[in-house]
């Protein structure tokens, strides 16, 4: 991943106009994936935390747009908007649908999960990586925005590790809530067991 530069910042009122956010596009990503930065000023005034709160959010059409209960993405995105709008910082909305395998392949993986395979096994059965995401692009987005030090809103230790390898200092890991329901319970348990996601379940 080469260097990125900010292309355009446009203010967009979101949440029915209750929240103002800058949507930011970038030059220099040869993949053409149209990753988006979203900046929230925060309401903290002078008391505001100096280090911005940042969420790297991988695209999930089914969860983010349609509120699918098979994952926790839609609720995590809502939570991220609430918290970052309070505290000030960025959501980097990364076009890495299905952990990088794409939407059609994710649906194939869901069909395999319906036959009893877990979320990582299903990808492998499709001869696709368990997790194909490279968060280096997020590090380059942050650098182009002049951000070198962040607090990271995530339960996924791999995101922090990859950012640090690409020169971003992560001063704190801020966990998201655990958005568990009857449909995503085993998906979330698998992430905790297989990829060390820091998820604490109330029922254990
Ligand atoms: N291949 C595959 N992808 C999935 C499945 N369920 C959800 N996803 C994708 O997983 C990604 C989840 O992204 P995030 O919420 O940013 O990341 P995370 O790794 O869960 O880490 P957190 O920061 O703790 O939320 C999205 O791209 C979803 O489309 C699945 O069963 N199979
Ligand atoms: Zn999802």
From TrEMBL:
Domain of life where this protein originates: Bacteria
Reaction(s) the record says it catalyses: GTP + 4 H2O = 2,5-diamino-6-hydroxy-4-(5-phosphoribosylamino)-pyrimidine + formate + 2 phosphate + 3 H(+)
Binding site residues for Zn(2+): 60, 71, 73
Co-factor(s): Zn(2+)
Domain GTP cyclohydrolase II: 11-175
Keyword match Heme: no
InterPro entries assigned: GTP_cyclohydro_II, RibA, RibA-like_sf
GO cellular component: cytosol
Cofactor-binding details, from the entry: Binds 1 zinc ion per subunit.
PANTHER family: 3,4-DIHYDROXY-2-BUTANONE 4-PHOSPHATE SYNTHASE, GTP CYCLOHYDROLASE II-RELATED
Function field: Catalyzes the conversion of GTP to 2,5-diamino-6-ribosylamino-4(3H)-pyrimidinone 5'-phosphate (DARP), formate and pyrophosphate.
Family label: In the N-terminal section; belongs to the DHBP synthase family.
UniProt protein name: GTP cyclohydrolase-2
């Amino acid at each position: 991943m080469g260097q990125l530069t900010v292309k355009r910042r446009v203010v967009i009122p979101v949440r029915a106009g209750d929240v103002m956010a800058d949507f930011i596009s970038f030059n220099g990503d040869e993949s053409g994936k149209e990753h988006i930065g979203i900046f929230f000023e925060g309401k903290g005034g002078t008391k505001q935390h100096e280090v911005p709160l940042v969420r790297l959010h991988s695209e999930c059409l089914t969860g983010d747009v349609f509120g699918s209960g098979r994952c926790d993405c839609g609720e995590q995105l809502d939570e991220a908007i609430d918290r970052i709008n309070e505290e000030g910082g960025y959501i980097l909305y990364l076009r890495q649908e299905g952990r990088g395998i794409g939407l059609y392949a994710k649906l194939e993986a869901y069909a395999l999960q319906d036959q009893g395979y877990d979320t990582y096994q299903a990808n492998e059965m499709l001869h696709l990586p368990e997790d194909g995401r490279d968060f280096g692009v997020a590090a380059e987005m942050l650098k182009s925005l002049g951000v070198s030090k962040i607090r990271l809103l995530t339960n996924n230790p791999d995101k922090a590790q990859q950012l640090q390898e690409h020169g971003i200092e992560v001063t704190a890991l801020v966990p998201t809530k655990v958005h568990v329901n009857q449909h995503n319970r085993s998906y979330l348990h698998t992430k905790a067991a297989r990829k060390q996601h820091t998820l604490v379940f109330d029922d254990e």
